[in-house]
Design a protein that fits this description.
The chain has two helices and five strands. Strands 1-5-4 form a three-stranded antiparallel beta sheet, with helices on one face. The protein has a two-stranded antiparallel ribbon with strand order 2-3. With 95 residues, it is α+β, with helices and mostly antiparallel strands. Helix content is 19%, strand content 37%. Strand 2 and strand 3 form a beta hairpin.
Amino acid sequence: MLYNETLLISKAMHKCSGTPLKPLLLESKNNIKLVDILSNNREKFIDYLQELGLNVKHNEKTTNYQNHATTIVTLKTTCFKVDFNDNFAIISPLK
């Protein structure tokens, strides 16, 4: 059972350099906030992140025949280039 699902985007931005890799094109519907664009295209974005690679941390404990498990999935530290236009947001990881 999924207990908590959260997508956090850091507000602390810094300049990254690199070559853009395979881009993801997300429909923006005139939204200018990245958080809204990602929320509206959640499944497509999650699938894209899985292709880039994820860190998985799993912890499991059994006490009195009751099993408790926690799995934390985080994106590897990655810089992204994000370009906006009227209809789309183009997200590309930098290598």
